[in-house]
Amino acid sequence: MATTITSTANTAFEPPALPLLYCELRWYAAYTAANHEKRVAEQLGLRGIENFLPVYASVRRWKDRRVTLQLALFPGYVFVRLALRDRLQVLQIAGVAHLVEFNGVPAALPEEEVAALQKGLASGMRAEPHPYVTIGRRVRVTQGPLAGLEGIVQRMRGGTRVVLSLDLIQRLVAVDVDALDLEPAHGCAIDVSATKKTASTLGARWHAR
Questions:
Q1: What is the CATH number of domain 127-205?
Q2: In terms of CATH, what superfamily is 21-109?
Q3: Cα(150)–Cα(156) distance, integer angstroms
């Protein structure tokens, strides 16, 4: 009886498809060695990898004069936009420790949060690092690149500010806003005149409407 033998030698091998998570361009936080943020951002740029290093101006006294420095707004972090399948291009850069993970998987940053920070800083918005804020009256920003962010008002000297919380890296940043651009988050009235007189700090949690 004749036997038919089918050869698969010439059949093309098709590797399993990668999960969509590994193919989509998303923003991730790359954790860097201390004071290596600018060097890492430069190397990312040379490799054609989209990156975002938020900085702020800090005036320091040095000997007989004052010097304005551009410092990392989130020390130890540079944001990179890439598909996870290409993450080795980032991890191979000297000074990069790892991508921030959640449950063992690199965790993507919300696109709207990164976009809001980019637009705000590009518009000349004043920002600086800020310690953690836990108490106060919750309000919402209604105008500008930060519109839709909710947070907590605290009485303090100075101008009206918004403290944005980037939960993934557990860092906060204080941003100047106009008191008229605030509204109550839960239907309670805000005394804008008192807010402008005493100034406020808004501890904001990053979630858009």
A1: 2.30.30
A2: NusG, N-terminal domain (3.30.70.940)
A3: 19
- Which residue is listed with tokens 């089918």? 6
With beta carbons less than 8 A apart as the criterion, state whether 139 and 146 touch: no
What per-residue confidence (pLDDT) applies to 207?
A: 39
Q: Which residues contact 112 (CB under 8 A, 6 or more apart)?
A: 208
To which residue do tokens 């890296």 refer?
A: 169
Predicted confidence at residue 10, as pLDDT, reads: 52
What share of the chain has pLDDT > 90, as a percent? 39
- Other C-beta atoms within 10 Å of 86: how many? 13
Residues 26 and 81: beta-carbon distance below 8 Å:
yes
- Over the stretch 96-108, which tens digit does the pLDDT of each residue have? 999 999 999 999 9
Is pTM beyond 0.85? Reply is no
**Residue 10 per-residue DSSP state:** T
The mean predicted confidence, pLDDT, of the chain is 80
Q: For residue 89, give the amino acid letter.
A: Q
In a 10 Å sphere around its CB, with 0-12 CB exposed, 13-18 middle and 19+ buried, how is residue 118 labelled?
middle
Place of tokens 């980032």: 90
Match 């790892």 to its residue by tokens: 98
- Report whether 133 contacts 156 (CB < 8 A): no
**Equal fold, 21-109 vs 127-205:** no
